[in-house]
């Protein structure tokens, strides 16, 4: 699946809002720095696509999560 440029920009901005020294473990794919994940999203690699899907899913669920808190 190819992603809309706006979605990729949003995901990259969300990643860049995190501390630069943070590390992510992506299952069997290994460990990635924040900047490595940004590059994966830009290239739309398998890891990049997983990150995009995870972020989009989180954003979609946000209203329900916020509703539960009130």
3D structure, described in words:
- By secondary structure, the protein is mainly alpha-helical.
- Helix 1 packs across helix 3.
- The termini are far apart.
- The chain has one domain.
- Strands 1-2 form a two-stranded antiparallel sheet.
- It contains three helices and two strands.
- 66% of the residues lie in helices and 9% in strands.
Counting helices, strands and paired strands, the structural category is: mainly alpha
Helix content: 55-70%
Summed over residues and divided by their number, the pLDDT gives a mean of 91
Q: What low-confidence regions span 5 or more consecutive residues with pLDDT below 50? A: none
Count of helical regions: 3
What profile does the largest beta sheet have? 2 strands, antiparallel
State the strand order across the main sheet: 1-2
Question: In angstroms, what is the radius of gyration?
Answer: 13 Å
Q: How many domains would you count in the coordinates?
A: 1
Distance between the termini: 36 Å
Please give the structural blueprint.
Layout (H helix, E strand, L loop, with lengths): L4 H12 L6 E3 L5 E3 H10 L2 H24 L1
Antiparallel strand pairs: 1-2
Q: What's this, in brief?
A:
The protein has 70 residues and is mainly α. It is 66% helix and 9% strand. It starts with a helix and ends with a helix.
């Amino acid at each position: 699946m190819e992603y809309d440029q706006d979605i990729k920009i949003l995901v990259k901005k969300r990643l860049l809002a995190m501390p630069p020294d943070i590390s992510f473990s992506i299952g069997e794919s290994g460990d990635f720095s924040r900047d490595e994940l940004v590059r994966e999203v830009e290239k739309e690699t398998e890891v990049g696509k997983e990150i995009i899907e995870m972020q989009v899913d989180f954003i979609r669920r946000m209203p329900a999560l916020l509703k539960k808190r009130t």
